[in-house]
Design a protein that fits this description.
This protein is α/β, with parallel strands linked by helices and about 240 residues long. About 35% of the residues lie in helices and about 25% in strands. The protein has six helices and nine strands. It has a nine-stranded mixed β-sheet.
Length: about 240
């Protein structure tokens, strides 16, 4: 049976699918990317799609933007139809918000390579592997609450709610989709002065995050492959 294409919702030109798209291409999986900043309106319906991915963005999930509400509506269609959904950072926040949870300021911003703890719950280990610490790439100052019925999967010292699952749907507060080009662009986009006043315990400066990338990025991409494979296994099983 041929898999239906994956729908990818992109909010900003600088926050594209990166490693997610690379992985889909290597698997020979059809996918369509809609970028609202490029003038592409998100589809009104998930009909014809086998999976959904919602990417990040600099805006707040609470901003009054029609594209954000459309993304939430598409996710609710996915819940109703059992279409597996992945949310990356803002995407995870939109999933939580659509399910009735609050999106609020994070206890502390997280930028760069930061640790998180994978919980002992079987669901957490199915998505992320064994319980324990991982280093993943972050760039956020808001966070999601846990929706009713969701399983809490991971936490960090700066931001307790790092990931939740609801059936075949996974919301992440971090950017498992970054590749080297995307990460380097983000790291160098802002002057050093932009980072002044941000807490050094949870915010890396550009030089430090780039120095860690050679070691951290291959490990994160192995994690991404695990996550994406499980997501696609749910899609294939529909």
């Amino acid at each position: 049976m041929t898999m239906r294409p994956v729908l990818i919702l992109q909010h900003l030109n600088t926050d594209g699918p990166a490693y997610l798209q690379t992985w889909l291409q290597t698997q020979g999986l059809a996918h369509e990317v809609y970028n609202t900043q490029a003038g592409q309106e998100f589809p009104a319906s998930l009909s014809g799609y086998g999976a959904l991915a919602i990417l990040g963005g600099e805006m707040s999930a609470n901003d009054d933007l029609p594209s954000l509400r459309r993304a939430e509506a598409l996710f609710l269609q996915a819940v109703q139809a059992g279409v597996p959904t992945l949310g990356h950072c803002l995407g995870g926040q939109l999933m939580a918000r659509a399910l009735g949870a609050a999106v609020t300021a994070s206890p502390a911003p997280e930028i760069g390579w930061q640790p998180l703890q994978v919980h002992k719950a079987p669901e957490a280990q199915a998505w992320f592997g064994p319980e324990g610490e991982r280093h993943v790439y972050h760039w956020h100052s808001e966070t999601f609450g846990l929706p009713p019925g969701a399983v809490w999967l991971a936490q960090s010292p700066a931001c307790p709610h790092q990931a939740f699952a609801l059936g075949p749907h996974l919301a992440m507060q971090f950017h498992v989709e970054v590749d080297e080009n995307k990460l380097r662009y983000w790291a160098l986009e802002n002057e050093e002065a932009w980072f002044e006043g941000l807490p050094p315990t949870s915010v890396q400066r550009p030089a430090a995050m780039l120095a860690d990338t050679a070691e951290r990025l291959p490990v994160q991409q192995a994690l991404a492959r695990r996550i994406y494979a499980r997501w696609m296994a749910f899609a294939a099983g529909r």
